[in-house]
Amino acid sequence: MKDIIPAKKQSPILGLSGMGGGVGSNIVTGGGINPGPDVWDTFSTNMFLGSNSVQRPEIQVDFTTAEEGGLSGGAVLIKLRESGGGHPSIISTELPANSYLRLTNSGAQSNIGSGATWFNNGWRLDSSSLNLNSNNRPYVAQNFRRRKGFFDVVTYTGNGVAGRQIAHELGCKPGMMWVKSTSNGQPWNIYHTGTGATQYFDGFNSNTAGTSSTRWNDTEPTATHFTVGNGGDVNYNGYTYIAFIWADGSNDSQIFGPEGDESIVKCGTWTDNGFVNLGWEPSLLMYKRTDSSSNGDWFMIDQMRKWNYNGDVERIAFDTGGTDNQNGEPIIRNPKGFTVQNLASQQYIYCAVRSGPMFVLPSANKQKYYRDNTNFSNNTSYPYANYMNTNNNNQTNRLDLTWMVLRNQGGNRRVQTRMMKTKYMDFSDSSAYSDAAFANVTIDNNNTSKFQLYNYQSLGIQSLTSSSATAAMFAMMTGHGFLDIGWYTGTGSTQDVAHNLGVDPGMIWVKSMNWGGGKWQCWQKDLTAGYVVSLDRDWVASSDPSGFGTDNTKQNKDTFRVINDSHTNSSNTSVNKYQYMIFPEAAEYIDPTDNKTVLYNMAKCGSYTGTGANQDINCGFPTTARFVWVRNVTSANWAVWSGGDSQNGLDAGYFYNWDNNYGRQQSGYALSTYNGTGANDGGFQVRTDAKVNGNGQTYIFWAIL
């Protein structure tokens, strides 16, 4: 049986079984550390295809479970993503069930038919409104849970008295507030910490801020309340109002994450070009220019649509009913914030929300981390094969990495990540990325029967090479302690690259995206310091004077090191763009009752020595692995891997070779399942094939529960 060992906790106290987030806690654990809640069940972005009737996205955001103090509920911002009308609109648990508000309209709340219903895993909307759910129209929804340190929704009735104080439950200073009368036709009024309480924005338009004490009474909001003046937009006697409030990201809002000391939202300003340091990777960015009405609209961009490494973004303007803008400002998402380019001498305010999850999720969520389909074929009805079918067209499964192989014939091992947009690379060679418009993979968020570019949530196959071709696809989600994917620019000299894995890495893959001679370089913790493996070659591990260096302590929970790259141009040549994939030594799920004991692993990177006889590899899993990748590092050989059914274990007896000359290979002598003999010592079995178990040879591996 696997030893249960104390470790730094990575999982919160759970509010709902299997959600990996849940209610924050003030209980000091045996380790003396307060865990905080997770952004995972607090915020998410999802896309859906309108239906003219019932819409029921199943997402991880919990709108019904009350946390300490009774806070529950939230709001959803919905926007049509194509031309032909459709104004950004909000539904909320604090509005009447059959009502919603439009951001671009000063009217009172509008009727939405049968209305909204709320759940611990999303919401249900019965409407045919063009603004919310028109048939076969694509929408994006930003889901905000009411939670201390993040977001609150407050309703009140005006009294016309300047200096009126309105209580809220953020527990910290607000950074942004949207206030609207629900009973009468009054414009939206917006407060932002970057412009202060003496100024306001009169609606979601390109206007610069106005100055008046009638809105916020020239009084900054506090951790317990905000103040309104006597203006009719915010405090007319007898009118009813609603306020949507985001935390500012300061110390009092830093109550999330493994040690309860991190923020998940930040409101601030930027001026000119440069890096905006959030301390974490953003999932959503809402922003507005403040020094001019030129390009002064309110915009939002998010990781679920198109926000990639070169700043090519799909942005939405709040004040129009038009389509997504495919050529928005070059705001580049980074592991610790975002970088602004080509906006010199301009001033902006922003509100950013963090990407998650911040903890290793429990095994009930294993299909969110890894999903596959190892046997599907060309469909003559559609130019793809449905792959992420969950029998629910609106079930969210965020996927950040996928690769596809042909099953019944040789072909490239094509890989896409969210940041690459419509590009792809081949695991099996050193080519730079290529356009994926007809390159086998397209991506969709709208539902499981329609695949569109730029929508990386469900996945499918397009343009298989022949009508008889069959294929396999493997897909994964990034998250704290499980997998991180990012990019950096080479400098030609030693640099430490920031990442978001949050734990010490067990393995790192790096590949140049824009230079065709760059190899897939692999650092692994059990290799001799200074040695690397080139994944697109069948070479043994060897020393590399221009790879990751010889000091393995530089590969840590915050950064990894790449050094002078004059030799291979594969990891740090000046100006080149590199993509990295970084894996933990173990994705440890921690006992939520004491917040320190490792119960089991969700993934594992390690090594073993071959014996030539069947041997079981203990990964600390509660059952068998569903995915295994193995590479011989002492004898010339390609990596091999095997996936399996999304619910069960490996496709035992079958495997794929990293070499692109072969399809799926059958062998009873390679990889098989291993459930373990104790509670948490499952993993996989290697048999007698020298590719995975040659006597005396050394192998590195990566396995997923």
Written description of the protein model:
The chain has 705 residues and is mainly beta. It folds into six domains: 39-145, no CATH class; 151-247, no CATH class; 264-354, no CATH class; 363-476, no CATH class; 484-584, no CATH class; 587-704, no CATH class. 2% of the residues lie in helices and 37% in strands. The chain contains four helices and 51 strands. The strands form 13 sheets. Strands 42-43-51-45-46-47-48 form a seven-stranded antiparallel β-sheet. The radius of gyration is 26 Å and the shape is elongated. The protein starts with 42 loop residues before the first strand and ends with a strand.
Please work out how many helical segments DSSP would assign.
Answer: 4
Q: Output the radius of gyration.
A: 26 Å
The number of E-state strands comes to: 51
- Overall residue-averaged pLDDT value: 82
Strand order of the largest sheet: 42-43-51-45-46-47-48
The low-pLDDT segments are 1-31, 378-396, 436-466
Morphology call: elongated
Provide a quick synopsis of the model.
This protein is mainly β and 705 residues long.
Question: Topology, please?
Answer:
Layout: E1 43-49, E2 54-55, E3 74-80, E4 89-92, E5 99-102, E6 110-111, E7 115-119, E8 122-126, E9 138-145, E10 151-157, E11 164-167, E12 174-181, E13 189-192, E14 199-200, E15 210-211, H1 213-216, E16 225-228, H2 232-235, E17 240-247, E18 265-271, E19 274-277, E20 282-289, E21 298-302, E22 316-317, E23 331-334, E24 337-340, E25 347-354, H3 366-369, E26 370-377, E27 401-406, E28 414-417, E29 423-426, E30 434-435, E31 441-444, E32 458-461, E33 470-476, E34 484-489, E35 495-498, E36 505-512, E37 521-524, E38 531-534, E39 542-543, E40 559-562, E41 577-584, E42 586-590, E43 598-609, E44 615-621, E45 627-632, E46 640-642, E47 654-657, E48 665-666, E49 671-674, E50 682-686, H4 690-693, E51 698-704
Antiparallel strand pairs: 1-9, 2-8, 3-4, 3-9, 4-5, 5-6, 7-8, 10-17, 11-16, 12-13, 12-17, 14-15, 18-25, 19-24, 20-21, 20-25, 21-22, 23-24, 26-33, 27-28, 27-33, 28-29, 29-30, 31-32, 34-41, 35-40, 36-37, 36-41, 37-38, 38-39, 42-43, 43-51, 44-50, 45-46, 45-51, 46-47, 47-48, 49-50
